Amino acid sequence: MKKFVIISLLLAVIIASAALGAVIGGYLVYSRVSSTNRGNLVETTALQAEPDQINISSTEINTAITEVVELVEPAVVKVVSKIPGQSSFFGFSSEQTISGSGFIITSNGYIVTNYHVIEDAENFYVILSDGEEMPATVVSYDVYSDLAVLKVTGQMPGVAVLGNSENLKPGETVIAIGSPLGDFRNSVTVGVISATGRTISTGRGYELENLIQTDAAINSGNSGGPLVNLAGEVVGVNTLVVRGNGQGSAIAEGLGFAIPSNTARLIGEQIIDQGYFARPYLGVRIQHINPTVALRYSLPVNWGAYVVRVEQSSPAALAGIQPTDIILRIGTYELGENTQFVNALFSYQPGDTVEIEILRDSEKILLEITLAELRGT
């Protein structure tokens, strides 16, 4: 009887323990499953609340440069013309279409560009910033400053304001606008003023003086376009870029040059007012003398202007200048490495009386000459 009671108690303990374990185990499983389900529910809810998407911002960023471009760009034009075909020893060359840039300077349609953009060309038209085409005529030009003025008729989309180029300082930010290569109309490049007062030889017996040097990219087709400061003022007319000195040197980048706006204003205003730009006229054909030329022809001076021809009834002829004379000085400008004949002469105005020093048969002679007027066209 005692054994029976003990065995019954043991069985009761075992059954109770098993039941308790089942309850605890079931609770733990239930808790884990419930937790997992809740996690899935939260995750599902999160996915539904924040689905994958591309965030897009419509923030507008305005800078001084973008504001200047928006201000000046309507006044910038593409200048297009044609060079007629020509007969030569090698056959007949076909007609060529050329293009450059320019900018509107008056509300009635006067446009400034480079002379070399319109040189030897005809059938001109301009393309405005909005794509409209307008026929254009050449009013006049000045070869020695590489500037020309065109005229169109119609509503102008914008007018550029000319600033004072004398205020430019190296390091100042500038913007070039134009149509590089003729295909990329109204392209914008940004740089700084690298230097002012630069002189570049044209290879035609005269130099372009007082140029602005900039590292803003200037390419073929940019010629005649505006160089603009951060005040939205045109401070230069983009005219050329130098890649090297032509003597086997490394290719250079960032050597762009522009004609000062003060020069463009002076010539542009005179062309608009009287239809042409007047230069002082002496009336001689000359050959530049430099040390190489002097050595080759055994000349008595290293620098000067050798008179090849004297025009009849010209100021030079009336003053007694003769062929084979050598001009050494015009007014206060002595001809030398940094001052060529044309640039010295063009420092004066038609009607000015200047003292000219010549060398004739080893004798220096001083002459007083009143300069006449030479029109650009």
Summarize the structure.
With 377 residues, the protein is α+β, with helices and mostly antiparallel strands. The protein has 7 helices and 23 strands.
**CATH architecture label name of the largest domain:** Beta Barrel
Structural class: alpha+beta
What form results from the Cα inertia axes? elongated
Low-confidence stretches: 35-47
Beta-strand percent range: 35-45%
CATH class of the largest domain: Mainly Beta
Mean pLDDT: 84
CATH-defined topology of the largest domain? Thrombin, subunit H
Helix content: 10-25%
Strand order, main sheet: write it out.
Answer: 7-6-1-4-5-9-8
Order of helices and strands: HHEEEEEHEEEEEEEEEEHEEHEHEEHEEE
State the domain count: 3
Counting DSSP H or I runs of 4 or more residues, the number of helices is 7
Summarize the SSE layout with pairings:
Blueprint: H1 2-49, H2 64-72, E1 76-83, E2 86-88, E3 91-93, E4 96-104, E5 110-113, H3 115-118, E6 122-127, E7 133-135, E8 137-142, E9 147-151, E10 173-178, E11 187-201, E12 207-214, E13 226-229, E14 234-241, E15 256-260, H4 261-274, E16 278-281, E17 284-289, H5 291-296, E18 304-310, H6 315-319, E19 326-330, E20 333-334, H7 341-345, E21 353-360, E22 363-370, E23 372-375
